[in-house]
Every structure is written in C-alpha cells, then in structure tokens.
Design brief:
With 336 residues, the chain is mostly helical. The protein has helices spanning 18-24, 30-41, 49-56, 63-72, 98-122, 129-138, 140-153, 159-171, 176-188, 194-207, 212-236, 246-258, 263-277, 282-294, 300-308, 323-326, and strands at 76-79, 82-85. The chain has a two-stranded antiparallel sheet. Strand 1 (76-79) and strand 2 (82-85) form a beta hairpin.
Length: 336
C-alpha cells in the first residue's frame, strides 16, 4: 500500500521565529513585514535591494529602514553588510555562571525593548500606497477613522494622509478615538494639517497616551500651557512671535500656573532682564522668578520690603541670579 499526502500550498514552507509575532507584530507595519518575510523566504541567496523592491512592492529607499527595525528588535543581526539571525545571548555563556548570565540576559532584553521603543516612536515608517489601499479596502475600523477624520478636517484625505492615520493606528499604537481627539485638538489650535497631526501623534505615542481620558488630560494641559504663555506674551509685549517653543511653554506654565505670579511681578522680572541683558531671555527671567518664589515674594510690596531690608554681610558677593549657570541651561527647540 502506498500513501501520498498532498500538502498543496504547504508543500513549500519556511520558518518564521515566534519572536516576530510575540514582540514585533504590534509595531510592524506592512512594509516591515513584507521585507522580513521575503528575506526569510530567500535565505541563503544574494538579494539586491531592487530585487526585494520588485518582489514586495516596497520602495528601495524604505528597505534598509525596515531591516533596521528587525535588527533593533534583535531578530536579525548585521555585520559586514550581511544580515543573519540574531545570536541568542546565553548560547555561549558557561553553565557555572548562571546568576551573571541571567542579569546579562535581563539587561539585554531591557536594552532591546528600549531600542524598539525609540526606533518605533522616533522613526515611524508610513506604509506605502499599495499597502494603504489594500488595508483601506478590508479594514472597517480604518474606514470609519478616515471618514470621521475627513468630517473633522472638512476635506477629503489624500492617500498620504490616510497612510499617516494608518501609521498612527498600527505602528504607533494610538486608538482611533484618540487619533480623532488629536485631530480635533489640531483644528482648535489652527493647525489642521496632517503634518502636525503626525508630529503630535508620535509624541503622544512616546508618552503612552493610550486612552480617551489620557488624551483629554493631555489636551487640557496643552491648552493651559498656551493660556499661560498668552499671559506672559502680553505682559512682555511680545508680538508676532509665532508658535511658542517647548521651553517657553514650560516656563510660562511654571510662572503663571504653578507659582501664580501676577502680571506686575512678571513685568518687573522682564524689565530687570532687559536692563541687564539687553534682550528677553526666558532662562534669565526664570532665575529671577525662582529666587522670588523661594523667598515667598509674591507682589511688588513684598519685593520692596525685601530689597529695603538690611543685607547680611557676605565674604564673597555672589551673582543674584547665578548668571553663569543661567546662560548654560537653555537651548530652545521651536515647534513648527
């Protein structure tokens, strides 16, 4: 008697490490998965980027970044321009050193997790046109998200815009309702464009904004910081300054929201800064206000009494506001 088993499509298979599903699937978009599956299927062969691109439909320029994702996840390793399965950390460890081995493996796992988080958040990769169109055709959740986003923005979304939404949902892990809250927030601050949505969305993913409640708190905090900066800019007479920097928002929130300084006290600190430095320097003003806060000086009368009080003799006259340190602490990164 003879037995024949027809496996059909299973006649030809190749191995896919379980780690790819267990750790990499959540943040891996279609581009990353396409590239990985193709190189695993073609193991042992020399593959040009053009060959991979032709077989997968992925742009040539996107392939190295996709491979780098799996290197950062410790699925692949790279050396001398050649990719190989990543070496298991404890394969070469001696058995009589189990405690040290365990710590090394734990540390390596933590480093890999941090590399994965940093790679995903700081360098997310938008899916290509073909993958986006395919997902839109079968993903009901994505269809609803696109329709709702178009309604909020008041315009039809391009394929690139839809790819941004798909990236925020799949690669960055933001929930659709959180993404819609983000879009509404961008509309409220007159930045209703997908570039701003993408930038802030990546930032939210980095901060772990994973619920409507967390998004609501984040938006309320952002509005509060903007209001505080509005108070500061009016007191300082700042006009046509564009978007405030991250540092300026932090300073303004501290001065107005946390320390509760009044407009007259802000103006006094501003004038002393300009008299001393010849320009507005937020870090210098922060030093002045920090000193007043520590001395519980809250109004002009408190300031007058403090400055009229006899000064204690000191062996060495110190700078009132630690000017040398203040000059070092601030590099302002402007928000687009």
């Amino acid at each position: 008697m003879s037995v024949k088993i027809n496996l059909g499509a299973w006649q030809s298979v190749f191995a896919v490490p379980s780690k790819i599903v267990d750790e990499g699937l959540k943040f891996a978009d279609g581009v990353k998965l396409k590239v990985l599956l193709y190189v695993l299927r073609s193991a042992g062969q020399d593959m040009e980027l053009e060959t991979i691109s032709k077989a997968t439909g992925v742009n040539v320029t996107d392939i190295p970044e996709a491979l780098e994702y799996w290197v950062n996840l410790d699925v692949l390793s790279k050396g001398d321009g050649e990719y190989a399965p990543a070496r298991i950390e404890n394969e070469t460890k001696p058995n009589n050193n189990s405690v040290k081995e365990e710590k090394t493996v734990e540390r390596t796992a933590a480093e890999v997790e941090e590399q994965k988080r940093r790679f995903v958040v700081t360098k997310p990769q938008k899916p290509d046109y073909v993958f986006t169109a395919q997902r839109l055709a079968v993903d009901g959740e994505l269809k609803i998200l696109v329709n709702e986003a178009q309604s909020v923005l008041g315009k039809a979304l391009s394929n690139s815009d839809i790819a941004t939404l798909l990236m925020l949902k799949d690669t960055c892990g933001l929930r659709p309702d959180v993404i819609l809250m983000l879009i509404s927030y961008c509309v409220s601050i007159d930045k209703a464009n997908m570039r701003t949505v993408e930038k802030i969305g990546i930032s939210w993913a980095d901060e772990g904004i994973d619920s409507v409640e967390a998004a609501d708190r984040k938006i309320a905090s952002a509005h509060h910081a903007t209001d505080c900066f509005g108070v500061v800019s009016r007191v300082f007479g700042l006009k046509n300054v564009g978007s405030p920097t991250k540092k300026q928002l932090e300073y303004s929130t501290r001065w107005v929201g946390e320390w509760k300084f009044s407009s007259p006290m802000l103006r006094e600190a501003y004038e002393r800064c300009v008299d001393s430095k010849g320009e507005v320097k937020f870090n210098y003003i922060d030093g002045i206000l920090k000193k007043w806060q520590a001395m519980d000086i809250k109004n002009p009368e408190d300031l007058k009494r403090s400055e009229a009080a006899p000064k204690k003799p000191a062996g060495k006259q110190a700078s009132s506001y630690n000017i040398e340190e203040l000059e070092k602490i601030d590099t302002l990164d402007f928000i687009d």
